[in-house]
């Protein structure tokens, strides 16, 4: 039972805890799953030049990004024995403390879920054309740099 | 010969438009040179170039109606 | 802001998606968090000698288990730079498709959350005196063996 | 000299009680021998022994009112 249909990754604004809960609940029907690894990226209140980040505004080259997400999914499904794999990324404004990235990997045994989830997160940050603009309290902003 | 240009991230702060059109260039090197003539500030930034959604590392021949995207370092996640 | 107070790990029955959602939501106030890694163990419908597992009944040496969970928490907090760490394990009956283990690790950057979460899951399976009894449709059962 | 014994997992299927009391043993080896006399089936299983919630690998001296737990291989998670 492999679920790898193409779907939209981008969600307008923050990814909510209730959306995550619904995703988890939807997997209770997949009785061969033994392990889920979930990565959540949360917007930090970083201090940059004495100003505190209050939100990040995400923009993307969406057509290319969806293509990249699809390629990442295909490669990871080919490499690891997974049951399910879902990736969601915010577009638009996400406030500090809110979730902007949700990677959800399910497998029979835990090793595959752990390995695949980590690999996906690294590849999303490296390969997908998304840009974050960090917004401060005074509405000034700076383009985010990933480490 | 008409090339559609898409501009993203901090490069947009320079061009002030997210889409523009460049005529009469045959390859990505010529294109980059022409863009830097028009927006000299661009030369201060590192960016990748995608032709029809594929990143190209070397000088690449362009065809009419190709879409070229200017991509500064990604910062998703 | 390090949160490492001692608490009860065991939950009677399955760990629900809404409980997980509430845990995630509670972390939106911790604005220095940039990454969460969540591991969920789900009860599988394994086929053993032609009989399908319909539930696992967990028992534990609870006093010793709580002590072990506490030691695992302390060691992981000492080793990794984490903001938050929560571990929940079911006791009693958990049906196939339901969640029996919830490990929730939060850090400023993703590397620590990934490393620590994986280490905790391995240690929980190795060090904590918990036993699962796999129950079949005909109410017969077999003691679970971890790989 | 009174030792409280706790029995877990599949070992419980042999003893049929989760708690029992053993008298007049001075160390964990004597204790194990006495338990196997009482429940010969126990000798077929591998299990660890915890004295007052700490697993002991070697023969360990026991004191009055110590709690000894018989722990088959863990299978949590």
Report on this model:
The complex is a heterotetramer, with 2 copies of chain A (147 residues) and 2 copies of chain B (77 residues). Chain A is an alpha+beta fold and 147 residues long. Chain A has a single domain, classed as Aldehyde Oxidoreductase, domain 3 (Alpha-Beta Complex), CATH 3.90.1170.40. In chain A, 31% of the residues lie in helices and 37% in strands. Chain A is built from 3 helices and 8 strands. Chain A has helices at 17-26, 62-79, 110-127; strands spanning 10-12, 35-42, 47-48, 51-60, 84-95, 99-107, 130-136, 141-143. In chain A, strands 1, 2, 3, 4, 5, 6, 7 and 8 form an 8-stranded mixed sheet that branches. The termini of chain A are far apart. With 77 residues, chain B is an alpha+beta fold. Chain B has one domain: Beta-grasp domain (Ubiquitin-like (UB roll), Roll). Helix content of chain B is 19%, strand content 32%. Chain B is built from 2 helices and 5 strands; from the N terminus they run βαβαβββ. In chain B, strands 2-1-5-3-4 form a 5-stranded mixed sheet, with helices on one face. The mean pLDDT of chain B is 96. Chains in contact: A-B, A-C, C-D. At the A-C interface, helix 1, strand 2 and helix 3 of A face helix 1, strand 2 and helix 3 of C. Strand 2 of chain A pairs antiparallel with strand 2 of chain C.
